[in-house]
Amino acid sequence: MTDGIRCMLMRGGTSKGAYFLADDLPRDTAERDDLLLRIMGSPDPKQIDGIGGAHPLTSKVAVVSPSQVPGIQVDYLFLQVVVDQPIVTDKQNCGNILAGIGAFAVERGLVQAGEEETSVRIRMVNTDGIVTARFPTPGGRPRYHGDTAIDGVPGTAAPVVLDFEESNPGASVLPTGNITDVFGGITVTCVDNGMPVVVVAASSFGKTGYESIPELEADEELNRRVQELRLEAGKAMGLGDVSGTTVPKISLVAPPANGGTISTRTFIPVRVHESIGVLGAVSVGTAVMLPGAVGSDIAARPAGSRLTIEHPSGALGVEVELDTSTTPPAVLRSGVVRTARKLFDGTVFPR
Ligand code: NQM
Questions:
Q1: Which of 66, 156, 163, 251 has its CA 20 to 30 A from that of 314?
Q2: Which phi-psi region, left, alpha or beta, contains residue 107 (left: φ > 0; alpha: ψ -120 to 50)?
Q3: pTM, whole model, 2 decimals?
């Protein structure tokens, strides 16, 4: 391997990541992870010697390859590179970085683009979920500019429509088997519709749920209690010892404050999300739709399948359709609109 590696930097939704072809990275996972730590500049709170942005939302990696599965064009493996620890984890998916995968596949010649628009069927390797991404490709090239605005990103860009056929095949939307659980005296709903999330009323921690991110991150007592809850819930969700992984997320919910369905503040899992993850929002939305779940009682539940998940920088609209007549409830479909943009294409030089 040369000392430089082909890499594209993209904004996907409200996150930013380094996108690679699998063929441009070592096959051995230990070697690959060591390389990615050196590329991103981890472990270091500033990631000063790498291209990571010193926040979990900007320390993300996508590994893309042609899929061997019939009917699927590309495989997308998501890797979270922990900023201040030497950890690269595939235990979580990322629906924001997913927003750039279709365009990246076209840019790298893995997918032939349509003359106006392109649909790419993607396997999300982390969960085995299948999603179709639809985005504009006038003249056979991805178009990044457009008039779609998403909260948390300045300006507008071209829409990327993500339709999840199955976000979490084979797994239950209620990983503990219960609609609610009690850990350390706190009632929660553990839900997974693509992202394992522990939904808890902000009031259970004596919070309003409308606090600012710095206020929540500075509250040591809250952070200690959130991490205690996370370790216990992680075990009950079948995730084992989650002290070294980035799931489950903890979402503090409160009644909507701005005409949406529900308000959220989400620990991912230590820092508080600037907005909320795509599959995180889909999973919180799933709890809202389940009678008896934490969140369902305080939400402004919609008549249809469209939910507006409020977060610290605005709101994220998601579509969630469930069949609640079965036990556990079945996910029929979910979807979301994001935007993505190519920022840089070139060669990255690892430490
Ligand atoms: O839930 C951050 C993000 C995410 C994840 C996180 C995401 C999702 O916003 O689908 O997108 O929760 O770690 O990138």
A1: 163
A2: alpha
A3: 0.95
